[in-house]
Fold this sequence. Notes:
Blueprint: E1 2-5, H1 10-20, E2 26-29, H2 46-61, E3 64-74, H3 94-104, E4 112-122, E5 128-139, E6 155-157, H4 170-176, H5 178-194
Parallel strand pairs: 1-2, 1-3
Antiparallel strand pairs: 3-4, 4-5, 5-6
Helix pairs in contact: 4-5
Bound molecules: inosinic acid.
Amino acid sequence: MDLIVASNNKGKIAEYKDILTPLGFQVFSQAEKNIAVEVEETGSTFEENAALKARAIYELTKCCVIADDSGLMVEALNGEPGIYSARYKGLPTEHERRMAVLEGLRGADNRNARFVSSICFIDENGVERLFTGTWKGTIAFREEGTNGFGYDPIFISEDADGRTTASMPISFKEQYSHRAKAVKQLVDAIHRLKTP
Ligand code: IMP
């Protein structure tokens, strides 16, 4: 069965292809299906944004769709950067956005944070399912490490040994991350759907 990943991010699409092809889906990117829309993320939660993106593509194609949305929530910053993680404070680079988080936490006692990932899966009948994974940790005092992307150089997961995620082996995220947890829920649900 065809499944479209509502994204133009090559890394993300490759990841979903690896996971979902063995489950019997033929996975396509938006580009492969000639869908040029860039859906505006106007929701106020990760779940809403994932659903908005998935619905827009479903309405056009009536095909199975997956869309996701994720980001970092910092307690002492009232949950920011949150849904604005990719464009926090309008800053153009990941480094500047990380520095804005560090600056915002200057002098703060509470450095608790969590990553959140929501996935919306719409099946060929239009039935929506949402899956959300979270990953708790704290914000470091400075950037450290070169693995990963985004806020990884300042996030110290509760599952780690005190190093930032960007300093841990890449396989670490595959096991523990917010995205890994949401994807596991998705895969379990698809297995359940296939088993009458
Ligand atoms: P997206 O919704 O997956 O495109 O992610 C939005 C933004 O959240 C990214 O641009 C990153 O800034 C941040 N983010 C999401 N997941 C991660 C992660 O696993 N590590 C670091 N930053 C992340």
